[in-house]
Design brief:
single chain; mainly alpha; 85% helix
């Protein structure tokens, strides 16, 4: 019985390490995407795109590992909570990687040069807050810190406020041609994606609380 517990501990530690690695990749992706978008850096944008494939592969690996643990080990208590929460978290992480990829994509698209830098600045600020949330969540995940997870979730209000600000700025623009209207639509779309990024972080924070305390609070 004691040997089985040690084996389960080892498997859960490996599962958790994979989860942390994936979260670290997503944190790096949103940071690079912000820089690519703000500086129109094609190389950074291409790296985000390439890393998104790796993030997707990690999702598949972690989900498969979680299923194997559930079937072969029949975990209980906190062990089961950790596997269930981890398999939910990877879905949010994968979508966060997609959102970062879409932000980076704007760096390689023909945009109206320097015309709407005020909007660009607000979207970049949204991405910066998202990055801070992702970095803090990674730390909370490593330490299973439920109190910190609750505090991180409050930062989503800042992302929501910036999204609303960007939306008002975009609507206020009197677009003069089709190209400019397309640019504004892209800004609106990616701002919404960054708002969703914050929602996914908040959801992950709720699952961290669940892992640590056995309850999943509504942190939105």
């Amino acid at each position: 019985m004691e040997q089985r517990k040690y084996q389960l501990d080892d498997k859960l530690q490996f599962f958790h390490e994979l989860l942390v690695q994936m979260a670290s990749r997503v944190e790096e992706a949103i940071a690079l995407a912000r820089e690519a978008f703000e500086k129109e850096d094609v190389k950074r944008a291409e790296k985000v795109k390439g890393d998104d494939y790796f993030i997707d592969q990690m999702r598949d690996l972690i989900e498969s590992d979680g299923v194997r643990i559930l079937i072969s080990e029949a975990p209980y208590g906190q062990y089961m909570r950790q596997v269930i929460a981890g398999m939910k978290i990877v879905t949010s992480l994968e979508r966060m990687g997609d959102h970062a990829c879409h932000l980076a994509a704007l760096a390689v698209m023909p945009m109206t040069p320097k015309k709407h830098q005020d909007i660009v600045a607000v979207i970049a600020e949204m991405a910066e807050v998202d990055h801070r949330m992702a970095a803090e969540t990674l730390d909370a995940m490593v330490r299973m810190d439920s109190q910190k997870a609750r505090e991180i979730a409050k930062m989503d209000d800042e992302v929501d406020a910036l999204n609303a600000k960007a939306g008002k700025m975009i609507i206020a623009v009197d677009a003069s041609d089709v190209s400019e209207r397309e640019n504004l639509f892209d800004y609106h779309y990616v701002a919404k994606e960054l708002e969703r990024f914050g929602d996914h972080v908040t959801n992950i924070c709720a699952w961290i609380v669940y892992m640590a305390e056995g309850i999943k609070p509504d942190l939105n």
